[in-house]
Design brief:
Cytochrome Bc1 Complex, Chain A, domain 1; 8-stranded mixed β-sheet; 6-stranded mixed β-sheet; 38 helices
């Protein structure tokens, strides 16, 4: 659990902590005040200035003000999740989450009077359906459900909620269900809060569960994905063995297959009426607003809700395990180990000590488990605190190197646990952990979302904010003896250990889904309620963009350019050296990037180097891209000199150790082997097949023979060559240009010796794919989910096209209010996820790129391909949706702010595209001139007429290639070796 800090105050506190001065203990006490007629509680010295209101009906309203940009992160949550699902209707809370987007009797409907009796009939038919066991009878009744649903859909307006949120400029509209909560999320412009409140108050007044059977299909998709996911198998096994009497382990969020196949709308409504009551709910508002004014509006909007007693969740206490529980699960992805120890829940007085244990074990740099990775004893190893209301868990994960067994991984990791129990760690590490936590909190506090989600966790788990703040200070005073005692108390008990083993055996049995008929989405209709909301008077906020000539100072360090933006907010700094070569010039840079992470310096081992960095609360990294490489340093300004010295010591004196390189080569070989079994990695690699012929940014890797012959001397020469180039320094921090230049010194090179010759640098572009007819590539990759991509290189870059492209994306393929989402998921239920985008290139010498995607079940591939092709060939016209798309884009740009180090990177992005202003400013200034005719012309010329590469990744043992021949174009089989390049 993280607690966020006020930026300036936290920086001031951290200065004294890091400089060794003693700071007076702060008092964190609950206090009460009244303002604007409303009483609220707060904790003295709370860095976030959090206010806690409780309305008369019991609704908790939590506020924290952050003026960084004119937006608010909003969360409305209820303490109801899979833990409180009825045992005979698991997955119900998650169902309900999906249905809370479907509207009420006032919106989401074009004619409630005609729709209502049809929905009531659907309710009745589902109850009949659930009572039947005969397969033929169930099929017959479901056909009735499908038929009546089609009639009801004629009066519904699909996605009207999403369209409305898009119209007012909301972003990130979504929701999630977890063990103990269901939360509904929006990022809203501050001038649109009155509209948002009106909509949300209506949303929870009388939700109507319309368009249910197509949404149910999406839930089936989720279940099938989870059933075939190796990670889901592991976590379900771990929790099931850890919690044998508690619903953390007895029930899953999506629910059982049997319950999914027998949904009850009546039970869902009953659940809603039981748990969606104000005294069981909270509203969290984080951002730019006046709490005194906002609470009045919230009360006026949500005061209608009635308080109601909520049944308490009761459970039998879990007994300690008498011996370790060891479980093996199998799947096609790479092997790894997971294990966990059970701890008391969030309200336990020593929860903060659990968080310290997790950080001592794994903090990314100086933890006990981090040492296993730095010393190349394991491919990866980490630990974390999993804190829930009733119980918590300390969980571990480890990935073996090539040739290691999972049992060996377990022994190595448990040996580090023993070190923790025995106090075999540096006590100074605790101070470093506290300081790094404060630094992390400072960064997170700059984000409205970061503040809101932490406050949500506190509400759901009933953690007391005063106790949390006291606990954060208490951490710095923990002695090694106290930490050892706590570790010995809980880590001496028996763990649950799960071995994720690799197997080609396919045990996945998908949920059988009934056939459905596509329903109407009525995208041109709009309810009177939505018209009323959109007609509300709103004072538009001015769009604000950085003026690069004023916000960026430009100077020289020798012959190297400096781009400088001053941080006037806090004590954080970020420094980047942007080197103008990437892996396309020499693919050994990819190996150097990994070697850099494992190597130390000529004076320090990597382990010692990382620990010293961690004590300074600083971070160093190397990131190699296609055309450029970034060497980065970040931290606190008061430690700049020491951090910069460490940074330079690694750049100028990178440790040259063939033993380390040998281990890195072994790791690379193992990672490459594992990547071919990882569907996410395969999907990433596949995309390049649609844009390039032959070598491409994804598969341009060093071959195994060249990898074997690669020496440290070559890597060191490559590093020295990079540092000899005319790189740019990008600095965002609290000192001015002159002081920054003084701190970093001057000169033409960071090298301490003459620059070496260019080591095998090539200056050539990857060959772009140009197709004259549709091509269909097939990759056989068995699994529950199939993936379909539509890819091609689009129009040559022209800045005049940028505003048209931006509006086209918003209308056609961007988010849940888009044409693509409505047609493919809402109407036809052909996909769990789908989108389309015509994306800007990285620079003006490259073309735009088109990407469309559908993630679906294998049996839906043909229908999905046909549906997307139809949309691409003829984009549906909706005047109202087009207006929504334009207003959504304008509102989003108007209320977004480019700030901090983001100014530097936006300058570089605009520069590459031939613009002298931020890209969004260029779009905003031109947007009013873009008409439907412009977007339609663009779509016809650059999308509909363009040949496409369609790539399908799925289990072709269940389909015949001749089925795809109907789609047109050449059929070409792909192999994993082809797409990975090894």
């Amino acid at each position: 659990m993280k607690m966020r800090k006020n930026i300036v105050l936290a920086a001031f506190m951290l200065f004294f902590l890091l400089s060794g001065n003693i700071q007076a203990q702060k008092k964190y006490e609950w206090k009460e005040e009244t303002a604007a007629g409303y009483t609220y509680r707060y904790v003295s010295n709370d860095p976030l200035g959090t206010r806690y209101y409780t309305l008369e009906n019991g609704l908790t309203v939590i506020t924290t003000v952050n003026k960084k940009e004119p937006r608010l992160q909003t969360i409305i949550a209820t303490k109801a999740g899979s833990k409180t699902d009825p045992k005979n209707h698991t997955g119900l809370a998650h169902y309900l989450e999906h249905m809370l987007f479907k509207g009420t009797d006032k919106y989401g409907t074009a004619d409630w009077g005609k729709e209502k009796p049809l929905l009531e009939e659907i309710d009745r038919l589902y109850e009949v359906y659930n009572s039947l066991t005969d397969k033929e009878e169930r099929t017959r009744v479901y056909r009735q459900i499908d038929s009546v649903s089609g009639l009801a859909a004629k009066y519904s307006i699909a996605n009207e909620y999403d369209n409305l949120m898009a119209s007012i400029g909301a972003k990130g509209t979504n929701a999630f269900t977890w063990f103990e909560e269901t939360a509904y999320i929006n990022d809203v412009p501050s001038n649109r809060m009155a509209q948002w409140l009106k909509v949300e108050a209506e949303r929870f007044r009388n939700p109507v569960f319309r368009i249910f059977h197509t949404e149910l299909e999406a839930v089936y998709e989720e279940k099938n994905i989870s059933l075939s996911s190796d990670d889901e198998k592991v976590i379900d096994s771990l929790l099931g063995a850890m919690f044998r009497k508690h619903n953390y382990g007895l029930q899953t969020t999506i629910g059982t297959v049997e319950h999914l196949k027998n949904p009850s709308l009546k039970e869902i409504r009953k659940y809603y009426e039981t748990y969606y009551v104000p005294n069981n709910m909270c509203m969290i508002l984080a951002g730019d607003f006046n709490p005194d004014e906002m609470i009045k509006q919230v009360d006026a909007s949500f005061g209608y809700m009635k308080r109601k007693d909520v049944p308490a969740y009761t459970y039998e206490p879990e007994a300690d395990l008498k011996k370790p529980v060891e479980i093996s699960v199998t799947g096609k992805e790479a092997e790894y180990l997971t294990f966990g120890f059970r701890f008391p829940g969030a309200s336990d007085a020593q929860t903060e000590v659990l968080e310290i244990l997790a950080e001592i074990l794994s903090n990314g740099k100086a933890g006990l488990l981090d040492g296993l990775v730095t010393r190349r004893e394991l491919l990866s190893a980490d630990a974390g605190a999993f804190i829930l209301k009733d119980y918590s868990m300390l969980y571990f994960s480890g990935v073996p190197k090539g040739g290691q067994t999972l049992e060996q991984v377990k022994e190595l990791m448990l040996a580090e646990v023993e070190k923790l129990k025995n106090g075999d760690f540096d006590e100074a590490l605790v101070t470093a952990i506290v300081n790094n936590k404060k630094l992390s909190d400072m960064k997170q506090a700059e984000s409205n979302a970061g503040r809101a989600y932490d406050l949500l966790d506190d509400f759901i788990t009933n953690r007391d904010r005063a106790s949390i703040l006291k606990g954060e200070e208490m951490k710095a005073k923990l002695s090694k003896k106290e930490i050892m005692a706590y570790a010995q108390k809980y880590l001496s008990k028996s763990p649950v250990i799960v071995y994720k083993r690799q197997s080609d055996e396919d045990t996945f049995v998908p949920v059988e889904k009934p056939q459905i008929t596509p329903v109407e989405v009525n995208r041109d209709k709009q309810s009177p309620f939505v018209k009323e909301v959109l007609s509300m008077k709103v004072t538009e906020l001015p769009a604000e963009f950085p003026d690069f000539s004023k916000s960026i100072s430009r100077g020289m360090n020798g012959n190297k350019e400096i781009l400088h933006v001053q941080n006037t907010t806090n004590d954080l700094f970020y420094l980047y050296f942007r080197i103008p070569i990437g892996f396309k010039y020499n693919n050994k840079l990819r190996i150097l990037e990994q070697y850099f992470g494992f190597a130390g310096t000529i004076r320090q081992s990597a382990e010692a180097y990382d620990k010293e960095l961690y004590k300074l609360a600083a971070s160093v990294s190397m990131s190699v891209g296609e055309e450029e490489t970034y060497l980065s340093l970040s931290g606190l300004h008061q430690n700049f000199s020491a951090s910069y010295s460490l940074f330079m010591s690694k750049l100028q004196g990178l440790q040259a150790d063939e033993t380390i390189l040998a281990s890195v080569k072994e790791i690379i070989r193992k990672e490459r082997e594992d990547a071919k079994t990882n569907p996410d990695m395969v999907r990433r690699m596949l995309a390049s097949q649609g844009y390039y012929d032959g070598k491409n940014p994804s598969n341009d890797v060093l071959g195994y023979e060249d990898l074997a012959q690669l020496s440290v001397k070559e890597l060191k020469a490559l590093m020295d060559f990079m540092l000899s180039l005319d790189y740019r320094s990008l600095y965002y921090g609290p000192v001015g240009m002159d002081e920054f230049s003084s701190l970093t010194g001057s000169g033409s090179s960071m090298l301490t010796s003459p620059p070496p010759p260019a080591p095998g640098i090539k200056f050539e572009e990857y060959a772009l794919k140009n197709v004259s007819e549709n091509e269909m590539y097939l990759l056989n990759f068995p699994g529950a989910k199939s993936d379909v991509f539509w890819l091609f290189n689009g129009a040559a870059y022209s800045k005049e096209l940028v505003p048209v492209v931006s509006l086209y994306n918003e209308y056609f393929g961007g988010g849940m209010s888009s044409v693509v989402f409505q047609d493919i998921r809402e109407s036809k239920a052909l996909a769990y996820s789908t989108y389309s985008t015509y994306s800007l290139p990285a620079n003006s010498t490259k073309p735009f790129r088109f990407t469309a995607y559908i993630g679906c079940q294998t049996d839906k591939i043909n229908d999905a391909v046909q549906a997307m092709n139809a949309l691409l060939n003829k984009m549906p016209k909706s005047d109202s949706k087009f207006v929504v798309a334009k207003e959504s884009l304008k509102n989003s740009i108007r209320t977004s702010r480019i700030s901090g180090s983001g100014i530097l990177f936006e300058f570089l992005r605009a520069e590459k595209l031939g613009l002298t202003m931020p890209v969004n400013k260029y779009v905003y200034d031109k947007l009013d001139q873009v008409t439907w005719a412009d977007v339609e012309k663009f779509q016809k010329e650059y999308v509909a007429k363009h040949p496409r590469v369609i790539i399908i990744m799925g289990d072709f043992s269940k389909l015949e290639n001749k089925e795809f021949a109907k789609q047109g174009g050449k059929l070409i089989s792909l192999s994993l070796d082809q797409i990975f390049g090894y």
